[in-house]
Write a structure and sequence with these properties.
Elements: H1 11-41, H2 45-81, H3 88-121, H4 126-158, H5 162-185, H6 195-220, H7 233-266, H8 270-286, H9 288-306, H10 310-337, H11 339-344, H12 350-363, H13 367-382, H14 386-412, H15 414-438
């Protein structure tokens, strides 16, 4: 496969070449969560509340695949930027797949065993807990296929090919969404499986998506068995884990924190959980462009850092942050104006809808800060500084969001939780600026040399 050289030409075009198609791919993937919420919401409040408990936990677990794909992107894109001879990038991809499969199986088994206890600790009532537990077996079975697919997609992006990765994501989502109503409600001889059917649809979609991604990756040479597939295995594992583990933890911190925040919301009742969950799904679609930028900034920074073209990497970061600010504020205006119709897409319950409307009208004004956070983290991961991204995410969640959410719910109810979310996203902007300067992704203030004025003789 001919890699796209992101070290040459316009920085804006290079960033757009990867990010633009990824917007469609990420939108497709996120639409699966919306489809689950929509179809399960037709079955009543308990399945919809169950989604509110399931979503932050499964997103936290999915962070393993995000972390491993970040490690693969960092290693492969830097190797491409250095113009390494031989089949080094292909071997790195193969090692990433093997490592990812082993870890995914272990994590899926752990989730399957502990899910019931976990949802109970989050405050799920009997009805919601029953629905949530029905979702777990097929979702856990699907997780290894998700990991394989995401690592293959990371290899495509590292080569500058965001389009193929997006197509795989869209294919997976379309299969999932098409099967949702069939398996949830039943059709002809197929019985309605309710919440379990939504998870089965996810399993089938990921299985087909992973198979398609791996086949095409081998077909075009992004993956290869190589002449000596085990050569430098331990070095590859070390490099992958040095980025992958902190990046996985960094990505897991946000949904894990959301699980703790959801527990705070649960003190206000199932209607609050359902409305909060619906709002976070609308948010996930609203910020899809920001998430796509985080997917595009990785290969831009990785290839240019590997090629020692650091100014281009810095220009890409500054451009991405500018887009986050402009786009985020524009989305806030739309969500504030049309909060009621958006809430009505998910529920007819007035109490549930009121929670969704309040969330969108307040928290949306800080979405730009979350965009700056995820692009900063992706850029730091790409240049092998994942510990900084982990520290930034950890501070945002455990120092700001979770403590303020629990204090806020005790003092001001739901409004206190929403203001805590705003504070966390604004903190992310300050933290991202600090970390970017510390890691060289932004020039330090006063770093330019001042020319000496020689005395006249």
């Amino acid at each position: 496969m001919a890699s796209k050289d992101l070290t040459q030409g316009s920085v804006a075009r290079g960033l757009a070449a990867v990010s633009a198609p990824m917007s469609l791919g990420i939108l497709a993937v996120l639409s699966v969560g919306l489809a689950d919420a929509y179809f399960l919401g037709q079955l009543g409040a308990a399945p919809l509340a169950a989604v509110g408990f399931i979503y932050p936990v499964t997103v936290a677990i999915t962070s393993l695949s995000i972390g491993l794909s970040a490690g693969a992107n960092s290693s492969i894109s830097q190797a491409l930027g250095r113009k390494e001879e031989g089949d080094g990038p292909e071997r790195l991809a193969l090692h990433a797949l093997g490592l990812g499969l082993v870890l995914a199986i272990l994590v899926a088994l752990a989730f399957y065993v502990s899910a019931g206890t976990l949802f109970s600790l989050m405050g799920a009532g009997d009805a919601a807990l029953k629905e949530a537990r029905a979702y777990v077996p097929y979702w856990a079975l699907s997780f290894p296929f998700l990991v394989l697919m995401m690592i293959a997609n990371a290899a495509f992006r590292a080569h500058g090919d965001g389009l193929t990765a997006a197509i795989v994501m869209i294919l997976t989502a379309l299969i999932n969404i098409a099967l949702n109503p069939v398996l949830i409600f039943g059709w002809g001889p197929i019985p309605g499986l309710g919440t379990e059917g939504a998870a089965l649809a996810t399993f089938v979609g990921r299985l087909i998506g992973a198979a398609a991604a791996l086949w095409y990756a081998y077909h075009v040479g992004v993956l290869s068995t190589c002449s000596a597939p085990l050569r430098n295995l331990m070095t590859s594992v070390r490099d992958l884990l040095s980025v992958g583990l902190p990046a996985a933890f960094s990505n897991a911190v946000n949904p894990a924190g959301m699980a703790l925040v959801t527990a705070a919301v649960a003190t206000l009742g199932d209607a609050a959980v359902a409305g909060f969950g619906a709002a976070t799904r609308i948010q996930s679609v609203a910020i899809v462009v920001l998430l796509a930028l985080s997917a595009g900034i990785g290969p831009m920074v990785g290839q240019n850092w590997g090629a020692d073209r650091k100014d281009r990497a810095r220009d890409a970061v500054k451009l991405a942050w500018t887009v986050c600010l402009v786009y985020g504020l524009g989305v806030a205006v739309l969500l504030t104006l049309f909060a009621d119709p958006f809430a009505g897409l998910f529920t007819d319950d007035k109490d549930v809808a009121a929670v969704t409307v309040q969330y969108l009208s307040i928290v949306s004004w800080s979405f730009f800060g979350y965009g700056i956070l995820v692009t900063a983290n992706a850029a730091m991961n790409a240049r092998s500084k994942a510990v900084y991204s982990m520290g930034l995410s950890l501070s945002r969640i455990l120092v700001i969001y979770v403590p303020l959410a629990w204090i806020g719910v005790m003092l001001f109810g739901l409004t206190g939780i929403l203001l805590a979310a705003v504070a966390a996203n604004l903190f992310a902007v300050i933290g991202a600026l600090f970390c970017a300067r510390a890691t060289g992704l932004l020039k330090r203030l006063g770093s330019r040399k001042i020319p000496e004025v020689l005395p006249q003789t």
